[in-house]
Structures are given as structure tokens and as C-alpha cells.
Amino acid sequence: MGTDTRCWRLFGAAILFFLGFCDSDTAPNFTFLHNATRAPAISYYDYIIVGGGTAGCPLAATLSQNASVLLLERGGSPYGNPNITNLSAFGAALADLSPTSPSQRFISEDGVINARARVLGGGSCLNAGFYTRASTDYVSEAGWDGRLVNQSYEWVERLVAFRPRIQSWQSAVHDGLLEAGVVPYNGFTYDHIYGTKIGGTIFDVEGHRHTAADLLEYANSTRLTVLLHASVHKILFITRGNLRPLAHGVAFRDASGIKHRAYLKQGSKNEIIISAGAIGSPQILMLSGVGPAGHLKANNISVVLDQPMVGQGMSDNPMNAIFVPSPSPVEVSLIQVVGITRFGSYIEAAGGENFSPRDYGMFSPKIGQLSTLPPKQRTPEALAKAVEFMNSLDEAPFRGGFILEKVMGPVSTGHLELQTLNPNDNPSVTFNYFQDPLDLERCVQGLETIERLVESKAFSKFRFNELSIPTLLNMTVGAPINLLPKHANSSRSLEQFCKDTVMTIWHYHGGCQVGKVVDHQYKVLGVDALRVIDGSTFNYSPGTNPQATVMMLGRYMGETILNERLANDESK
Ligand SMILES: Cc1cc2nc3c(=O)[nH]c(=O)nc-3n(C[C@H](O)[C@H](O)[C@H](O)COP(=O)(O)OP(=O)(O)OC[C@H]3O[C@@H](n4cnc5c(N)ncnc54)[C@H](O)[C@@H]3O)c2cc1C
Ligand SMILES: *[C@@H]1O[C@H](CO)[C@@H](O)[C@H](O)[C@H]1NC(C)=O
Ligand SMILES: *[C@@H]1O[C@H](CO)[C@@H](O)[C@H](O)[C@H]1NC(C)=O
Ligand SMILES: *[C@@H]1O[C@H](CO)[C@@H](O)[C@H](O)[C@H]1NC(C)=O
Ligand SMILES: *[C@@H]1O[C@H](CO)[C@@H](O)[C@H](O)[C@H]1NC(C)=O
Ligand SMILES: *[C@@H]1O[C@H](CO)[C@@H](O)[C@H](O)[C@H]1NC(C)=O
Ligand SMILES: *[C@@H]1O[C@H](CO)[C@@H](O)[C@H](O)[C@H]1NC(C)=O
Ligand SMILES: *[C@@H]1O[C@H](CO)[C@@H](O)[C@H](O)[C@H]1NC(C)=O
Ligand SMILES: *[C@@H]1O[C@H](CO)[C@@H](O)[C@H](O)[C@H]1NC(C)=O
Ligand SMILES: *[C@@H]1O[C@H](CO)[C@@H](O)[C@H](O)[C@H]1NC(C)=O
Ligand SMILES: *[C@@H]1O[C@H](CO)[C@@H](O)[C@H](O)[C@H]1NC(C)=O
């Protein structure tokens, strides 16, 4: 048995104490975590947060410092589940399709197989761990206070961000990026700057994952209640004649299907905050009667507010990757190095046993990635066939790694619609990958950069010289599968390669965007006492990868809301 050492750091007033107890697989001392089955039928709080994910946890921890807080999470606890806590197990949760899995698979109308979190800590429990801030331009365009932004990132980083240990394959990737012209070299930094850098990670040096749930360490445990297996079905509104609808409570169900309600205490500053993620937040708004009136009526939902923009502006950054088989051994690594180009695509890499029959990996059909077939052909049967094919091969062809590019933004957008009235079911989502030609152009330029990287001197140790790039792109047999689907007319078109091999890097966002569904204070337009704070509010994905900024936003808005509360108390 390996020991899952998890070192809990406790906070003194201003000093960090490192406690020596590194217990395996047990939850930290969170006295406020409860199964929703234990919740009373009715309860009252200053703040009620829907969704204990990447934004919801830091938000709850912060608000609990000065107010009573209820955090409702539909999933369970991440603690003690090696599929979540262990770097080497990456993908195991994404491959688990059971109803109790921390990951819920969904397939967009585009046909790309995707996943959403269903666990305390949200996407930070499933993700590849890369940790990197948004650019200063992004921060100023968002209208955020740069000083509070930096303090909030630091607050997050004190508990969950680490410097990765770079080994030889990732080193070859960064040297290759420099040779390919993605310069300068910026060393290890969380900052988003042009060139090649080593970013942070939420995995510590022992490969243990630290998640947004760990930020609950900051909470005042006497003022916070976290209910697990608590599925919110509806935000409850008071309608008041000509006044704006007022959010005043939520209805949720526990694991046994029993209904509970939680209401805001009396007090004009108390609020409900939705942090259910880019799929869950627009979904719960619609289920509560805030959304496009026609669509709500068609689903027999009584309209609280006709808001046509709810569910609009859904985007998923397209990801395309090239597998490069290697004559030398390649260490297991998730994302560590990133190339930030000036043309708007980010180059990242994951090496090691990414396709191995034993493992899951970022590009395995076991988790729904199947770039050898165009999106709409990635049926369950096709996935099963690909898994079977891989199981029939020995380990040798799996030696190597993937170089990927992610298109920034993206510019293309789509929309989300309800399919059922059950909040546990997936809504239908359309992302319209590459609908805008700029996204396609960025993909092509990204792939051209990857070609230069692969052909660089620095990378030569990790590629077979006899495999030219066109051969590599066309490789299907014996080795695992690059990646070019067969089109009579398109074997050399990188545009077609982009469209046919598109996958997700799971950075989907939108649905409750700032300026369209919420204002710059994240307050839902047209109603009172309701905000949305999470990745659904983004117009574009921040940084090269979003999680740092999602966690930062939870802290940032928690502080902002408490400051407003305090200012209001003083004016009384
Ligand atoms: C496989 C994968 C790999 C990724 N890799 C990276 C990476 O390396 N680096 C990076 O920066 N980002 C990465 N990301 C993206 C990043 O993790 C997400 O952008 C981020 O976690 C989104 O945070 P969120 O708070 O918006 O939503 P979430 O974290 O998804 O939180 C939403 C929460 O709300 C809960 N919820 C939803 N509906 C309800 C309801 N009705 N009632 C109660 N609870 C509800 C959900 O269970 C969930 O816990 C990855 C994501 C995935 C899935
Ligand atoms: C855990 O909680 C107990 C009782 O509340 C407390 O005495 C103890 O110090 C806590 N330990 C840690 C590591 O927080
Ligand atoms: C929560 O309670 C339900 C119903 O009693 C039970 O099925 C479930 O296993 C419990 N979950 C946890 C994590 O204790
Ligand atoms: C972590 O994963 C590795 C590889 O799958 C495995 O060898 C190890 O036992 C795992 N550790 C735990 C604590 O599950
Ligand atoms: C871990 O993942 C595997 C593979 O998806 C699954 O079979 C198993 O049930 C999961 N274990 C837990 C504890 O979730
Ligand atoms: C925030 O930090 C970044 C470096 O991470 C720095 O460039 C920027 O100037 C800082 N902003 C403020 C307002 O201090
Ligand atoms: C935590 O909250 C309680 C009130 O519930 C308060 O008395 C206590 O001072 C708070 N602790 C801290 C460290 O702020
Ligand atoms: C809406 O209600 C009508 C009448 O009760 C019913 O016929 C219809 O199937 C319902 N539609 C949906 C989407 O539930
Ligand atoms: C691609 O591979 C097929 C066989 O799988 C072969 O017929 C074709 O010539 C190859 N094309 C290129 C450009 O290498
Ligand atoms: C290839 O042919 C198909 C069908 O004729 C067409 O839709 C597609 O646009 C073509 N692709 C390229 C790159 O020319
Ligand atoms: C939080 O409460 C403390 C006293 O418990 C007070 O000193 C502090 O100013 C409050 N902060 C905010 C932002 O409300």
C-alpha cells in the first residue's frame, strides 16, 4: 500500500504553521462538512452558495469570515479518493461513468466528448493541475482591482499552488519551443507573458492534488455549513408587483430525494450566489424561471424574468494534439511547460503513458478523447473499439507524448438549452468550434509551431528521425494513432486536421456572461439578491488555463461582498 501523504497546513494569524501530520486518505478536520440527508427541512443563512466548485469553495471560505454561509454541493467529498488525489490516476474519474462519479460526462451537439465536475472542489478535482494567472490586460479589461486581484491569487497560492519538477521530456519541450521561436524564456512564473515558461501546478512534488476544497481551511468553521449530495433544483423568488423579483431561498434535494429549503435571513445585504459552473449556472437560472421566455414556456417553467442572454455565449477552446512516439523513455507528466505565442495559441504538452492500456491519460478514449475520428463519429461503440485496439497492443508504441495547442479566446460561441427539468441531467450545449475563421487560423499556426518544435534539435532525442511530419500526422497503425482522419481531398490540409481532430481541453465557459446576464459586480441583471460567480461569467478563458483565475475570483468577490456589507453596516 502506498501512503497517501497529505500535509495539512494550518493558518495562524499571520504566520504559516506546518503541522507534521501527513495522514493518508482522510478528510481534513472539516467539522462543517455534512451529508445533506442530515439537513433540517428549513434553515436560514446570510449567504447561500449553489455549487461547491472551483469558485464556490474560496467564496464560501471568505464570506464565512464575517457572515453565516451555506454551501450546497451536489457531489461528495474529494478526500480519500485516490482517483482524485493521485496525479498518476489522472483520468480515472473522467473514465468513471457511474452516477456517483465525481465527473459527469456530456457530449456537446458538436460531437466532442466533454466532462463536468460533480464533487466538492469542482473541476479542480478532475483537472490536469496546471496553475497560471490571467494576463494584466485580461485583469484590466475585466475591470477588476489589480491590487485585490494579486492579493487574491496569493491567498490561493499559499495553499494550493506548487512548482513542478521538470524532467527531461518537458525540458526538451521548452527548449524546442524556444527553437521554434516562442521566445523569450521566462523561467518558472505564474504570470501570463509572451514566450516560453514553466507554470505552477496544484499537484505537490509527491504527486498529490490540492484542490479548491482545500481553500475551506480558511473558513471560520462556526459560521460555515457545507452540505454534500445536495442538488439544488430551484432558486426561489418573491415577486413584488412592479418591483424586481427578489431571490430569497433555494430548494434542494438530498441523496434520498428528500426536499429541503434554505432561506436568506432578514437583512438587506444577504444574498444567494450561484457558482454551479458554466453548465450548471445557466441551467439553474433557467430552471428557476430566469431565461429566454419562449424556451422556458416550452418547458412549462413559469417565467420570473425574460432574459434571452442566459445560456448564450457558451464557448469551449478547441484543443488539437499530435502524438510523438519516442525512442527514449518519457517521464509521466501533465502540463508543466507552456508556450504563449503572439498569434493567439498556447502550446502545452503531456508525456508518458498517455494511452497505455493500464492508464487513462489526457488523450485516452477511456476518458472520451478520440481524435482519430471526426467529432460526430465518436460514438460509444467507436470509443470501445479504440480501447480494445489499445489493449491489444503492447506497451512499446505508447512511449512518447502529446504536444497540444489550445486556441485562445475563443471567438466562436454557441448556446445552452434545457433538455429536461431535472438539474442532474445535462442540458444540451453547442460550442460551434472553429465557426469563426480566426479560431481556425490560430489552430493552424499552433500546429505549425508544434511541427517546428518536434523537428527542433532540442527535441531530437524524443522523436524518430525517419518519421517525417506528414508521416507522423498520417500515422495510424502499430503506433497509437496519429491522428489524421482519412479524407480523399484533405490529407494535407491543416484546416481540415483542426476540424476533424478537435478535442476539448475542458476550459468551456460562458452562459452567464458579464454585461449580458450579470453586471460588473456579478449581480444578475433584472433581479435582486442574486449573483453568479464562476467560469460561466467569462467572455474569454483567462490565462493559458483558467483555474487560477476562477479560484481568485471566488476570493476576490468574497472580499468585495464583505467590504460592501461592512460599508453598509457603518452607514446605519
Ligand atoms: C479534465 C479537466 C482538465 C482541466 N485542466 C485544467 C488545467 O490543467 N488547468 C486549469 O487551469 N484548468 C483546467 N481545467 C478547467 C478548470 O478546472 C475549470 O475551468 C474550473 O474548474 C471551472 O470552475 P467553476 O467554478 O466555474 O465550475 P466547477 O468547478 O465545475 O464548479 C461547479 C460546481 O457546482 C456543482 N453544481 C452544479 N450544479 C449544481 C446544483 N444544481 N446543485 C448543487 N451543486 C451544483 C458541481 O457539482 C460543481 O462542483 C480542466 C477541467 C477539466 C474538467
Ligand atoms: C481538529 O478539531 C479538533 C476539535 O475541534 C481540534 O482540537 C484539533 O486541533 C483540530 N485539528 C486540526 C489539525 O485542525
Ligand atoms: C448520504 O446519505 C445518503 C442517504 O442516507 C446515503 O445514501 C449516502 O451514502 C450518504 N453519503 C455519504 C457520503 O455519507
Ligand atoms: C497512485 O497511482 C500510482 C500509479 O497508478 C499507484 O502506483 C499508486 O499506488 C497510487 N497511490 C495511491 C495512494 O493510490
Ligand atoms: C476510480 O476510477 C475507476 C476507473 O474509472 C473506477 O472503476 C473506480 O470505481 C473509481 N474509484 C473511486 C473510489 O471512485
Ligand atoms: C499584479 O502582479 C503582477 C505580477 O504577477 C504585476 O505585473 C502587476 O503589476 C501587479 N498589479 C498590481 C496592481 O499590483
Ligand atoms: C468565527 O465566528 C465566530 C462567530 O460564529 C466568532 O465568534 C469568532 O470570533 C470567529 N473567529 C474568527 C477567527 O474570526
Ligand atoms: C407541458 O405541459 C403540457 C400540459 O400539461 C404537457 O402536455 C407538455 O408535455 C409539457 N411539456 C413539457 C416539456 O414538460
Ligand atoms: C497515409 O497513410 C495511408 C495508409 O494508411 C497511405 O496510403 C497514404 O499514402 C499516406 N499518406 C501520406 C501523406 O503519408
Ligand atoms: C473535402 O470534401 C468535402 C466533401 O466534398 C468538403 O465538404 C470539404 O470542405 C473538403 N475539404 C477540403 C479541405 O477541401
Ligand atoms: C469582519 O469582522 C471583523 C470582526 O469580526 C471586522 O473587524 C472586519 O472589519 C470585518 N470585515 C469585513 C470585510 O466585513
From TrEMBL:
<dbReference type="InterPro" id="IPR051871">
    <property type="entry name" value="GMC_Oxidoreductase-Related"/>
</dbReference>
<keyword id="KW-0732">Signal</keyword>
<dbReference type="InterPro" id="IPR000172">
    <property type="entry name" value="GMC_OxRdtase_N"/>
</dbReference>
<dbReference type="Pfam" id="PF05199">
    <property type="entry name" value="GMC_oxred_C"/>
</dbReference>
<feature type="binding site">
    <location>
        <begin position="546"/>
        <end position="547"/>
    </location>
    <ligand>
        <name>FAD</name>
    </ligand>
</feature>
<feature type="disulfide bond">
    <location>
        <begin position="443"/>
        <end position="498"/>
    </location>
</feature>
<dbReference type="InterPro" id="IPR007867">
    <property type="entry name" value="GMC_OxRtase_C"/>
</dbReference>
<feature type="binding site">
    <location>
        <position position="535"/>
    </location>
    <ligand>
        <name>FAD</name>
    </ligand>
</feature>
<feature type="binding site">
    <location>
        <begin position="506"/>
        <end position="507"/>
    </location>
    <ligand>
        <name>FAD</name>
    </ligand>
</feature>
<keyword id="KW-0274">FAD</keyword>
<feature type="signal peptide">
    <location>
        <begin position="1"/>
        <end position="24"/>
    </location>
</feature>
<keyword id="KW-1015">Disulfide bond</keyword>
<feature type="binding site">
    <location>
        <position position="232"/>
    </location>
    <ligand>
        <name>FAD</name>
    </ligand>
</feature>
<dbReference type="InterPro" id="IPR012132">
    <property type="entry name" value="GMC_OxRdtase"/>
</dbReference>
<keyword id="KW-0285">Flavoprotein</keyword>
<feature type="domain" description="Glucose-methanol-choline oxidoreductase N-terminal">
    <location>
        <begin position="117"/>
        <end position="140"/>
    </location>
</feature>
<dbReference type="GO" id="GO:0050660">
    <property type="term" value="F:flavin adenine dinucleotide binding"/>
</dbReference>
<protein>
    <recommendedName>
        <fullName>Glucose-methanol-choline oxidoreductase N-terminal domain-containing protein</fullName>
    </recommendedName>
</protein>
<dbReference type="InterPro" id="IPR036188">
    <property type="entry name" value="FAD/NAD-bd_sf"/>
</dbReference>
<comment type="similarity">
    <text>Belongs to the GMC oxidoreductase family.</text>
</comment>
<dbReference type="Pfam" id="PF00732">
    <property type="entry name" value="GMC_oxred_N"/>
</dbReference>
<feature type="domain" description="Glucose-methanol-choline oxidoreductase N-terminal">
    <location>
        <begin position="277"/>
        <end position="291"/>
    </location>
</feature>
<dbReference type="GO" id="GO:0016614">
    <property type="term" value="F:oxidoreductase activity, acting on CH-OH group of donors"/>
</dbReference>
<feature type="binding site">
    <location>
        <position position="119"/>
    </location>
    <ligand>
        <name>FAD</name>
    </ligand>
</feature>
